Amino acid sequence: MSEKERRQAAIKEMLIEKAGSTQEDIRLWLISRGVQASQATLSRDLRELGAVKIPGENGNSVYRLEGPFGSIASGILGGFTFRVDPVNNLLVLHTSPGLASGFCAQIDRQGWPEIVGTIAGDDTILIITRSIDDRVAVERKLKRENGE
Asked: In 3-38, which ranges are continuous DSSP H helix?
């Protein structure tokens, strides 16, 4: 097992045991297990592992492990509320403050062909589709994945 594989396995283990950890928590946990990682390496590993950043209880951003191939329902949209406003071939998705980036990453991972691109703010995501029909299809998928 390479150093990278060992490090990423340790990160996965921690996030499975303790969902919602800060980068500093993860870094210190790795050090306690004899694994060194710079902040840049840790950020890259978290991105490659499909970890998403969500607001924590005390206002800090924390990481939660999401499978890169998981559906939205089993990922971060499940259990969170959002509102969708359609505008021609665009969807404006409103989330709770601080959650748009994580939602957007999960949507992007789905690889839905109807979506040309997404842009996330703090609590709003702009989803750009190729046509109005594609927008309707994406809106249906989002509502279905969220159990509506």
From this structure: 3-17, 23-32
* Domain match, 10 and 60 both: yes
The span from the CA of 137 to the CA of 148, in Å, is 14
pLDDT band at 117 (very low <50, low <70, confident <90, very high): very high
Q: Measured on CA atoms in the order 26, 31, 35, 40, is the torsion positive or negative?
A: positive
Residues 98 and 141 in one domain: yes
Residue 101 has pLDDT above 60, yes or no: yes
Which residue do the tokens 């259990």 mark? 79
Domain count, the chain: 2
Strand order in the sheet with 115-120: 83-87, 90-94, 124-129, 115-120
